[in-house]
UniProtKB/TrEMBL annotation:
This is Metalloregulator ArsR/SmtB family transcription factor. InterPro entries: ArsR-like_HTH, HTH_ArsR_DNA-bd_dom, HTH_Metal-responsive_Reg, WH-like_DNA-bd_sf, WH_DNA-bd_sf. It comes from Kineosporia mesophila. CDD domains: HTH_ARSR. Residues 10-89 form the HTH arsR-type domain.
Length: 236
């Protein structure tokens, strides 16, 4: 499909609004959030937030999740998150207005999530290492990769049968270089977290809270050992 055959302006119109952009940015942590939290993130009232959310749901950017009477919104499909991350890669930076914002940006700069997969310098390192060591080639998993991922309990054949693309590149908005997206990178982040190699901050409900991913020195060593590049992969 050519860009000339689709209405790019229509797709970009909704995220172009600052309030909707702020709500979408919060939803990039992969969670479902209530309207009140999204209104707070955008700095607007509940009625205005509800109007914005109605437009985003109607356009297929978001979907509504019900848990009893409460209603939550979340990103409807991974392609929406990929598009937002790509827009961020060419967008100007906002001014840092507080020490809290500065600290949060510094922590996210090392490793963070892009929807449900690893991003930031750690995500780019993973992309490069998997390609350099032959686990993936282009947007495909090699036989070596199948064995490597199986060691983490990841069934590549099962992921291939799913509706979501197994593997694709996503332009990282801080690094201006690609990290990996798709069903496999999402499964990898779960596997890394289950083993304690990466740590995601959680709320009182135990669910991930925000996009920050922490990797301590021991976690880096475990990741490099698994990748088979202990001597060649370095933290930034």
């Amino acid at each position: 499909m050519r860009i000339a055959d689709v209405d790019v302006a229509a797709a970009a119109r909704l995220p172009a609004d600052p309030s909707r952009s702020a709500m979408l940015a919060l939803l990039l942590d992969g969670r479902a959030h209530p309207a009140g939290a999204l209104a707070q993130a955008a700095g607007i009232g509940r009625p205005a937030a509800s109007a914005h959310l109605k437009q985003l749901v109607g356009a297929g950017y978001l979907e509504v999740v019900r848990q009893g009477r409460p209603r939550y919104c979340r990103i409807a499909r991974p392609e929406v998150a990929t598009a937002l991350e790509s827009l961020a890669a060419i967008a100007p930076s906002l001014p840092v207005r507080s020490l809290r914002q500065s600290s949060a940006a510094r922590l996210r700069a090392t490793a963070r999530t892009c929807y449900d997969h690893l991003a930031g310098p750690a995500g780019v390192l993973l992309h490069d290492a998997l390609r350099d060591h032959g686990q993936v080639a282009e947007d495909a998993v090699t036989p070596t990769g199948v064995s490597c991922f199986d060691a983490l309990g990841i069934d590549v054949d099962r992921l291939r049968r799913g509706r979501r693309p197994l593997l694709k590149t996503c332009l990282d908005w801080t690094e201006r270089r690609p990290h990996l997206a798709g069903a496999l990178p999402a499964a990898l982040l779960v596997a890394f977290t289950d083993r304690g190699w990466t740590v995601r901050r959680t709320g009182l409900d135990g669910a991930p809270n925000g996009r920050q991913v922490e990797i301590d020195p021991a976690g880096w060593e475990q990741l490099r050992d698994w990748l088979g590049c202990s001597a060649g992969c370095h933290r930034r």
